[in-house]
């Protein structure tokens, strides 16, 4: 018996779209049926190259205009890796065309834009979700069990994370992430979004009451009239004294670690965004014990290693394939998931607050309704 599959159109040919072509094909309940760019030959070349790596059952349609893809009856859902500065327009158009939407992050230039986009999705009864892949890893569910057992970490007091890569000079000359009109949030939107999402997840989706943001360095150039953050740090203050901090950067070599600390111990993982290559995803709980006997000061590690059987990338069980599988299931069943848009909006609200604080030289910024 053949499995019903959701027909996907890819709205843009960015590098991340190549990864998600494979993820859609690996999901089992989805298929790429169309690709569009502003250049028909580029769409055709993208399809040809992706078909060579992860072939679709039948070659997808190629379009030289985004509008033509949205008009296609073969397309039921769209994945849009278009730049942040363009996302509002094309999410609104996709929703009006009745297409379900996976949107890269950050979802919008600001929360007001995102609210408009989400309202359009509600009005047209289409699903919306942002493209945070780690949310769909089985490791996250196992970590939740450990954090909630009351013994391994205990009451959460502190969350910290860092996500960075050291960009080469050509990145700042040609990459859209160094272009203020296309990606106005710089490293905060590209990398900090993940850190914010992790903190909100750890806190059970409670918003912080106040944030303090700092632009540590910035860049402006020929294609970036306004400066974009290239290093950013922030402190998030929740109720009951719980706090979170993160650092993101285009100037520091690869790191993507996160830690959750509590009264009994801490949970740590070194690869919370893009898992290290392998067939297992790991994290650790540490409950070090300190003791003294006279002048003998002794610290003993009491650590537990947890391994979740899950491929890191490129396979049907990897987090990116899980994302498209998890998205397609409610769409195919007709029961939309209303939490996913809410999580995107909460992340956008906190990111906006971090940037607003940074623009006021680190003045604390309160989040209404938290």
Keywords for this entry:
Dihydrodipicolinate Reductase, domain 2, alpha/beta, Rossmann fold, 370 residues, six-stranded parallel sheet, nine-stranded mixed sheet
In total, the number of domains comes to 2
Low-confidence stretches: none
> What is the C-level CATH assignment of the largest domain?
Alpha Beta
Q: What is the number of E strands? A: 17
Instruction: State the helicity in percent bands.
Output: 25-40%
- Look at the structure and name the CATH superfamily of the largest domain: Dihydrodipicolinate Reductase, domain 2
Please provide a brief summary of the model.
The protein has ten helices and 17 strands. By secondary structure, it is α/β, with parallel strands linked by helices.
What features would you describe in this structure?
This protein is an alpha/beta fold and 370 residues long. It has 2 domains: 6-134, NAD(P)-binding Rossmann-like Domain (Rossmann fold, 3-Layer(aba) Sandwich); 137-318 and 347-366, Dihydrodipicolinate Reductase, domain 2. The protein is 34% helix and 31% strand. The protein has 10 helices and 17 strands. The protein has helices at residues 15-26, 40-53, 66-71, 84-96, 111-123, 138-147, 169-174, 186-202, 319-333, 339-359, and strands spanning 6-11, 30-36, 61-63, 77-80, 100-103, 128-130, 156-166, 210-221, 224-237, 243-249, 251-262, 266-269, 280-286, 289-293, 296-300, 303-309, 365-366. The chain has a 9-stranded mixed sheet. The chain has a 6-stranded parallel sheet with strand order 3-2-1-4-5-6, with helices on both faces. Strands 14-15 form a two-stranded antiparallel ribbon. Helix 1 crosses helix 9 (319-333). The termini are far apart.
């Amino acid at each position: 018996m053949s499995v019903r599959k959701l027909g996907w159109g890819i709205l843009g040919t960015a590098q991340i779209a190549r990864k998600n072509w494979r993820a859609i094909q690996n999901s089992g309940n989805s298929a790429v049926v169309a690709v569009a760019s502003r250049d028909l030959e580029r769409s055709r070349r993208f399809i040809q190259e992706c078909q060579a790596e992860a072939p679709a059952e039948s070659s997808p349609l190629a379009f030289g205009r985004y509008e033509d893809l949205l008009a296609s009856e073969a397309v039921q859902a769209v994945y849009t890796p278009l730049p942040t500065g363009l996302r509002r327009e094309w999410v609104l158009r996709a929703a009006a065309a009745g297409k379900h939407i996976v949107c890269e992050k950050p979802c919008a230039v600001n929360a007001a834009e995102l609210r408009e986009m989400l309202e359009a999705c509600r009005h047209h009864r289409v699903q919306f979700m942002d493209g945070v892949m780690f949310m769909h890893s089985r490791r996250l569910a196992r970590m939740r069990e450990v954090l909630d057992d009351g013994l391994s970490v205990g009451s959460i007091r502190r969350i910290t994370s860092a996500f960075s890569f050291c960009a080469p000079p050509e990145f700042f000359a040609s990459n859209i992430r160094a272009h203020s009109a296309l990606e106005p949030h710089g490293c905060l939107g590209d990398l900090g979004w993940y850190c914010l999402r992790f903190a909100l997840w750890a806190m059970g989706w409670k918003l912080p009451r106040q944030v303090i943001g700092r632009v540590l360095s910035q860049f402006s150039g020929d294609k970036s009239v306004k400066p974009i953050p290239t290093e950013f740090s922030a402190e998030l203050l929740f109720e009951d004294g719980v706090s979170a901090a993160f650092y993101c950067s285009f100037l520091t070599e690869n790191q993507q670690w996160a830690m959750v600390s509590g009264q009994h111990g801490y949970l740590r993982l070194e690869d919370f965004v893009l898992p290290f290559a392998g067939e297992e995803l790991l994290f650790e709980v540490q409950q070090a014990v300190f003791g003294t006997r006279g002048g003998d000061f002794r610290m003993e590690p009491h650590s537990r290693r947890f391994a979740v059987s899950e491929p890191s990338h490129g396979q049907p069980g990897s987090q990116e394939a899980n994302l498209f599988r998890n998205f397609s299931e409610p769409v195919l069943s007709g029961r939309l998931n209303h939490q996913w848009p809410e999580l995107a909006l909460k992340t956008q609200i906190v990111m906006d607050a971090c940037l607003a604080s940074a623009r006021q030289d680190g003045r604390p910024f309160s989040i209404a309704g938290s």
